[in-house]
Amino acid sequence: MVVRRVMEQVAAAAGALAIAAAVTLGTTPAVAQAAPSGQTGAAATPKATPKPKPTPDTITITGGELPESGIKVLQADDPKLFRMLMEEVSWIASATPQTSTPAKDKLGQGYTVQVLIKDKATQLYELYPLAAGGPRAHRPENQPSGKKTDGWFYGRLSMSESLRLSGVPLKAKPDVVNGGIGGGIGENLKADDSDPAASEYIGEFRRLFLLNGAVLLIILTGLAGMAFLIRRRI
Taking burial as the number of CB atoms within 10 A of a residue's CB, which of 41, 71, 110, 134 is the most buried? Predict the structure, then answer.
């Protein structure tokens, strides 16, 4: 009898352990799956959308015959004119200098152009639309941003017209074609006004063209002579 009772108690205990194990294994996955859906804190918070980088909204022009207050062009008031002026200077910020410092007596009247973001100057340039050899642009060494990147560039051919439309007293040039970066040599230039580097480059190109033409003529003459001799033998 005693042995039988002991066996019954052992069987009952084993059954209880089996039931407990089954309950544990059956509920654990549910708990694991429920945890992420109820997750709270920083990990569950969506990332904030980064604010867009501010862009230029104002351009000022001073110098020459302009009043001391200069000219102010707002993007909100005249987006087309603002875009025209930005195209004259925006590329200069990261461009590599294209030319050496011109002689002062060849530059003509200069105008200072500032690019601002919310009334804070970020870029500064000096434009010379009437320079001998074509428009020139200067990037002063000390920029409002703190960078020191002095350099001279060939300006766009449209520089004069863009400044005139802004209010700068310049002669109209309706036949000017919009130029790209480094607009190139201007129009109606005297021989001594052209840029020396450009003149030298054109001269070298002309000599190379003539040399290639002479070589080609010699080759054609030789081929014609060979064809004539072969024909006589036949």
Answer: 134
DSSP 99: B
Q: What are the residue ranges in the chain where pLDDT is below 50? A: 2-3, 6, 10, 17, 20-21, 23-25, 27-32, 34-35, 38, 178-197
Q: pTM for the full model?
A: 0.57
Q: What sign has the CA pseudo-torsion 220, 222, 225, 229?
A: negative
Beta bridge partners of 153: 137
Burial class (CB in 10 A: 0-12, 13-18, 19+), 200: exposed
**Judging by beta carbons within 10 Å of its beta carbon (0-12, 13-18, 19+), is residue 78 exposed, middle or buried?**
middle
Token pair of 169 as six digits? 């007293």
* Cα of 43 vs its chain's centroid, Å: 37
Domain ranges of the chain: 58-187, 195-226
**Looking at 140-202, which runs of residues are DSSP E strands?**
151-154
**What b-and-e string marks burial along 21-32, b requiring 16 or more CB atoms within 10 Å of the CB?**
eeeeeeeeeeee
